[in-house]
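Forum: Protein Structure Q&A
Topic: Joint prediction for protein chains with partners

I've read a bunch of threads here and the consensus seems to be that you should model interacting components together rather than docking separate models afterwards. I'd like to see that in practice. Below is the full input, 790 residues plus whatever partners are listed. Could one of the regulars post the assembled result?
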Amino acid sequence: MHYDMLLLRFGEFTLKGKNRARFEKAVLKHVKLLLKPFPGASLRKEFGRIYVVLGGEPYEQIIQVLQKVFGITTISPVKMAPVELDAIIETAVALMHELNVDEGTTFKVNARRVWKGFPHSSQEMNHLIGSPLLRNFPALRVDVRQPNIELRVEVREQAAYIFSDVIMAVGGFPLGTNGKAMLLLSGGIDSPVAGWSSMRRGLEIECVHFYSYPFTSERAKEKVIDLAKVLAGYAGRIKIHLVPFTEVQTAFTRTGQDNLIITLMRRSMLRIATMLAEREGALALVTGDSLGQVASQTLSSMNVIGRSTELPLLRPLVMMDKQEITEIAKQIGTYDLSILPYEDCCTLFVPKSPTTNPNLWVVQKIEASIRDLNALIDQAVATTETVVLEAGGAVEGRKEEVIQEDWF
Amino acid sequence: MKYFDYAATTPPFEEVITTVAEVMRRHYGNPSSMHRYGEDADKLIKRSREVCAAALGVSPSEIVFTSGATESNNLAVKGAALQYQTRGKHIVTVSTEHPSVYEACKQLTNLGFEVTFLPVDEEGHVTAEQVCAAVRKDTILVSIMHVNNETGRVQPLHDIGAALKKRFPRVLFHIDGVQGFGKLSVDIRGWQADLYSLSAHKLRGPKGVGLLFVREGVELFPLLSGGSQEQGVRAGTENVPLLVGMSKAVRLAGERQAETARRMIEWRERVVAEVKTIPQLRLNSGKEAPHIVHFSYPGMKAEVLLHTLEQLGVAVSTKSACSSKLAEPSRVLLAMGRNEAEAAGGIRISFGDEHTEQDIDELILALRQAVAKLESLERWKR
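Posted by a regular:
Agreed with the consensus. Here's the joint model:
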């Protein structure tokens, strides 16, 4: 197929009045970043839309890349024609030719005269373009209600745009336009999906990961870094805070309250994440909780755990089924990493029967009885290592002693 | 002595040698071990996989490391055949394939598989129509090489892949890419390949290591069972130093491909022009792969010319190195319709990126002298 441009359409944020320009700018910036490997392609902005002028670059690959851009709802590959009726008809015929219409395919023409200087009205054009198509393709039938193909023609002053495909993109809000949040990222299936879902709502994400060396291995940490790298593929770059959690975690094992240990751990995690969020200017915490999935995700557990932070606690997956979450994980490319078999700190010390109905008063009592708990939490925050991950793999702020780049 | 047998093997990059030695010394841990030594070794494998995947334009999870091209080709052919035998037991390949594909296919016929060995034209080509015409209901695999290792013929992979996948999307497409990578541009996705074999020592990496691209979703029956290394497809402790060395060689070869090809084509043209001026020689190729010139000296045993050239300080090869010790005439040349005399007198000259203009001068001079010398002996004998 031969196309000249891609038409990118925006979603709900176009309703946002005054902020619209800011949203558009964010999308434009993101698109620009992703088009770097396609030097022939260039961008053109029109009211409410962006066009990617292909300049000979492969449109299928570019669509694949742009489908991931938050804020874009649909993409249409477009053919251009000079603003003359004959040229428009010729291009429409060429497009229809490439669509390989089978016997009985229905279509309609949906023409729009954006430039009022064009001598034919939109209504007229539907006929003027539709008739030659019917003559050229005997297999075609007209159906104005539910056509298989809706051939759209937009006549503008500089050129006419002709297209029919509407390819779904990821939608949502442009990256970072709704502020910043701290994502509690484990090695499981859920939290990366929660992170991606938040990013889709325009949140900038920083990740917090808790590790418990020597109870968990270095590989478990590497796995989470790899998961964050996948998220960086959507964001361009992403920060991950690696919190040494062993001391805090082992403090709870000494309380003899086995069935509450998960509740206690979770509360401390939220406290640490809150401190990091405040340090980094994030205004919410995001978790991968899904109602009822495990003991710590019952409503009463969520209540007791959630009270340990004053920040809004966002749980994008709270009402989703595991299967839906798994589907998304596969789509966004985190699933295969998530299922690698390394234990992480959430699966450590899991008691035989974790409580599904913790008592807030009891939990607070236990916390108060651990004299140095606050100090341990402060210590964990103070020794947190922060790494910046770039899309594509480079790691900043972390000494990679093993990997010597000049070996490769 | 000047070395002109790069299609057989190549001298490793100096940087590769240093890297292999350094990694061998420092990271001897077993990548499957839990401790730091193991983790470090594992990280190196992971990075190697990323580097190789990037050079091939595929994703890291699609790379299976092997011990070299022979294993990659065997794993592709037999692994696919055994895995998908419930779909059918028919394989299509070409009569000029490398022994590691050809013999693997023959071996499968003992296990109840049927193999169609497609003939080639006198240029050594096979067409997309031929391939599609040979595909049957029970065909599970088509295996075709990119560049022929003896003659340098390039098969039309783009046409074959497109035609095959359009008409028979379920048939797997394996490409033996060993002689092509680093010399010609490689487009695994564009060719719609499901499997693609590569060997490190053909592109100035170490011997004993290679890889097989296995497209996401394709399953292979493991030929080596044991541990769960390489996603269970290929058991055995990974050779970390060689893997790192290979990834470096693959990256360099990929980056330098265009430039390398440009220089090699110039030398190839000079040698081809020279061969054409020597009436005793018959050119068998020399216009496709940038790094191979192949010709016959009908009536002369190839080995005699090889040793004469050796005396004159030039190392070339007869047939492929893998089968050159066999006395039979070349199967590849016979398949291209050459007679016995021509097929027995084949000589292959192959270049590398570090040859110089002067090396080519020496080669041409030696060739001229060798033929003259043998001619005079012949007359004397008569």
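Chain A has 13 helices and 16 strands.
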